[in-house]
Amino acid sequence: MEHQENLQFVSDLRTTVSKLIKKIRKESPAAQKLSITERSVMASLYQHRALLPSELAAMEVITNQSMSQVLNRLSDFGYINRIPSETDKRKVNISLSPAGEAALLQFRHERDEWLLKAVKATCTDDEQALLKKALAPLTKLAEYK
């Protein structure tokens, strides 16, 4: 019976985390014009500074052709720079433009502000302390391979 209870617990955890993620994604008006993949590419570029389109495609688990469409759309918004490789003129490094970095930080700020408001409106001080304690094990779960 314990195994069944544990399965129910992790199912409830998965459902709740998924609902929260979906809700947070909707809470950035500025980000609504971009797809999840486009926002994810921007986050990868922010983290890695510059990547090849093929590297981005592998990270997003999409085809190079699909990545090309994503990059063209981000370019249309002025969110990326394309810089020819110094070592191989056939390759182009992709990086976030200043406008792209500002937009990404705006998306994150809007979501953080919403989440802070939601936590303060729905959680007691004790529950907020419990959420803070839960960050460490949730981080371990997110990093588990």
Give the SSE layout.
Elements: H1 2-26, H2 36-48, E1 50-51, H3 53-60, H4 64-76, E2 80-84, E3 92-96, H5 98-122, H6 125-143
Antiparallel strand pairs: 1-3, 2-3
Structural account:
By secondary structure, the protein is mainly α. It has a single domain, classed as Winged helix-like DNA-binding domain superfamily/Winged helix DNA-binding domain (Arc Repressor Mutant, subunit A, Orthogonal Bundle), CATH 1.10.10.10. The protein is built from six helices and three strands, in the order H-H-E-H-H-E-E-H-H. The protein has a three-stranded antiparallel sheet with strand order 1-3-2. Helix 3 packs across helix 4 (64-76). The longest helix has 25 residues, at 2-26. The radius of gyration is 19 Å and the shape is globular. 14% of the residues are buried. The mean pLDDT is 96.
Summarize the structure.
With 145 residues, the protein is mainly α. It is 71% helix and 8% strand.
What keyword list fits this structure?
single chain, 145 residues, mainly alpha, Arc Repressor Mutant, subunit A, 3-stranded antiparallel sheet
Radius of gyration: 19 Å
Unreliable residue runs: none
Query: How are the strands of the largest sheet arranged?
Result: 1-3-2
Instruction: Tell me the fraction of residues in β-strands, as a range.
Output: 5-15%
CATH H level: which superfamily? Winged helix-like DNA-binding domain superfamily/Winged helix DNA-binding domain
CATH class: Mainly Alpha
- What level of helicity do the residues show? over 70%
Provide a count of the helices: 6
**What is the tally of beta strands?**
3
| Overall number of domains | 1
Q: What form results from the Cα inertia axes?
A: globular
Q: Which H/E pattern describes the elements?
A: HHEHHEEHH
CATH architecture: Orthogonal Bundle
C-alpha termini separation: 27 Å
| CATH fold annotation | Arc Repressor Mutant, subunit A
